[in-house]
Amino acid sequence: MKQLNLILLWHMHQPDYRDYVTKEFVLPWVYLHAIKDYTDMAYHLEMHPQTKAVVNFVPILLDQLEDFTEQFASGEIRTPLLRLLATPELEHISVQDRLYIFDSCFLSNHETMLQPYPTYKRLHELYQIFNKRSESELAYVSGQYLADLLVWYHLAWMGESVRRNNEFIMRLMAQSKGFSYDDRLQLFNLVGELIQNLIPRYRTLVESGQIELSTTPHYHPLAPLLIDFSSARDSQPDVTLPEHDQYPGGRSRVAFHLSSAIASHTERFTEQPFGVWPAEGALSTPLLKILAEHGCQWSASGEGVLVNSLRASHPEMPLPDRNEYLYRPYRIAGEAERVTCFFRDDQLSDLIGFEYSRWFGRDAAENFVQSLERIYHSTPEAVNPVVSVILDGENAWESYPYNGFYFLNDLYSLLDEHPYIRTTTYRDYIADTGNLGNIVTLPALTAGSWVYGTFSTWVGDREKNYAWDLLCAAKQSFDLVMQSDRLTEEEKAEASRQLASCESSDWFWWFGDYNPAHSVASFDQLYRQNLMNLYRMLKLPIPTEIFESISKGSANNETNSTMRRSS
């Protein structure tokens, strides 16, 4: 009987928020997403053991989660917001700490994470009054206000599964205000417990065969651009590239990130990853060759990359209906042919990422399943279609009521009961020899990403290109120092880790005036701080241009820019 194979890939990623010199976490997003999204996503899978999925953990995220576990175990907290949550006498904290609490504890989607809670909403209204006062007047804000604000911010970021099942959290939410130091300390300890249990929970899901864990090159680099800047011209022939022709030694750097990811994954989960989701779904033929050399069996990207590749491979032919080409796996002719490539359904993925948050959960789940049924009936009878739905496993849910609880619960329930839709994983799909006949060979791959099918989110803009040129110059200095006897082996290893963090795709994502100013400022500063730290580790003077902002963003754009639509 014909069936539809549905592969849900939830991509879990946060860039490295640590200052490698001070060891402090500059931003709190890793632990906040841990207690909210990574916790909830594990819960929904545990509650629906028939639902299969692929979960992609970027190694640098896992590194940071383990760092948090060590912080709680040692009692040496290197995260300002957590330190303040567990500070006994908030009346006596500095004005700078007070400002930090105000600047941090309202950063969220107010419609879904502040407005539903009257006490938290009132705290925000009071803040809008305080915000008009001078810094010296902030000393008169009571410690109780600060305590309640810290607690409510963490309650707003708490996973819905925790809010519904943890009696202590239920009590805090019912209490609503007047939180004591003991309340804050218990909440602090719960955060530690949730983070400590995360990796073991996902490991159990792997051992049961319910999920496949995949990986990404370690620090989430935009690999095709590291290998060759000109790959951006595959999909945008007229794009302006950085002044440097190439990123120095880019291919070896990509191999380093990939080897490091495979080693880290194998150590944590006792087996080598079967497949790799490249950072930003960014693929090129040279990258696929590197993946093949490292034994990777599958990779994936966006629908736009497949469309561009089909058009380039057969320019004389019109593109057929998407039902005829999208829902099957591909291999690229040549040395990369050992890697099976899947391409996500951009429309279905974007419905979850951007549209369904405005629907009732049950209606959205039913609409999603009905869309799959239409695909089933419109694909050839002899083909079992494979539908890839790939998106962030953390950022979408902030826009959903109850962190997407009802949508995910209803979606998994409907899929579990469906007569001809089967959730599976890439590993299981490839292992089924009956699917081998569905694989199509592409003559060539057009390099691109899951955003617009291009690399325009990371290169081409003046500010993005300038950031690349700063990185290229730093890499040239790095190479010269590595070839000398200036550093010890331990110092070289530290500098290499710092360079890897500088190579993350996330910095380039945020540069540009289409992003909100407050977010751009944070990532601009952190990127330049990483470069400064690299020069310090190389024992070289810091170039003066690194002290100047690269990008300022737009004061008029306050949208959530952690995700992009595919088109």
Describe this protein with a few key phrases:
567 residues; alpha/beta; five-stranded parallel sheet; 10 strands
Whole-angstrom Rg: 24 Å
Low-pLDDT runs of 5+ residues are none
Separation of termini? 35 Å
Inertia-based shape: globular
Work out the helicity level: 40-55%
Structural class: alpha/beta
* DSSP E strands, number: 10
Mean pLDDT: 95
* Sheet of most strands: 5 strands, parallel
Helix tally?
A: 23
Strand residue percentage: 5-15%
Write structural notes for this entry.
The protein has 567 residues and is an alpha/beta fold. Strands 1, 2, 3, 8 and 9 form a five-stranded parallel β-sheet that branches. A three-stranded parallel β-sheet has the order 4-5-7. It is built from 23 helices and ten strands. Among the domains are: 157 residues, no CATH class; 86 residues. Helix content is 50%, strand content 8%. The model has no long low-confidence stretch (mean pLDDT 95).
Structure summary:
With 567 residues, the chain is α/β, with parallel strands linked by helices. The protein is built from 23 helices and ten strands. Among the domains are: 29-39 and 61-206, no CATH class; 462-547.
Topology at a glance:
Blueprint: E1 4-12, H1 29-47, E2 53-57, H2 59-74, H3 80-85, H4 95-104, H5 110-113, H6 118-130, H7 143-156, H8 160-165, H9 167-175, H10 181-207, E3 211-214, H11 223-227, H12 250-269, E4 275-276, H13 285-293, E5 298-301, H14 303-313, H15 322-325, E6 330-332, E7 340-343, H16 346-355, H17 361-378, E8 386-392, H18 405-417, E9 421-423, H19 426-431, E10 440-442, H20 462-482, H21 489-502, H22 506-510, H23 517-537
Parallel strand pairs: 1-2, 1-8, 1-9, 2-3, 4-5, 5-7, 6-10
Helix pairs in contact: 1-10, 1-18, 2-10, 7-10, 17-18, 20-21, 21-23
